[in-house]
Design goal:
about 110 residues; mainly alpha; about 0% strand
């Protein structure tokens, strides 16, 4: 886990520019919904692969957040719209909501 945090810090320090966006809007809803769906799908996939409840939950959330971070990294390139911590915050909220909904549906 420590290595992951350090790696993320290293990668994110190289963002070429930051987005100047707002907290609300259709873009944020899309980040939230996509992250929730990806988290739930990752949970389901991991459970079908034989992982226990805790590991499948971790897999689902990490799967969703890694795709969200990758999208923001893509946006941070010179031709992109810029890294958005607000988008990523909505990704985190969506991933945890997807995890919670999946857990409630299965237990």
């Amino acid at each position: 886990m420590r290595i992951t945090v350090l790696l993320c810090g290293f990668i994110l320090s190289g963002c070429s520019h930051m987005a100047q966006d707002k907290w609300g809007g259709q873009d944020k809803a899309q980040h939230f919904i996509a992250s929730a769906m990806l988290s739930a799908a990752g949970n389901e996939y991991a459970q079908h692969q034989g992982l226990n409840r805790d590991r499948s939950a971790a897999f689902g959330v990490i799967f969703s957040l890694s795709l969200g971070a990758s999208k923001e990294l893509w946006d941070s390139r010179p031709d992109g719209s810029g890294w958005s911590w607000k988008d990523f915050a909505w990704d985190v909220a969506g991933a945890t909501t997807g995890y919670a909904l999946w857990q409630m549906a299965h237990y």
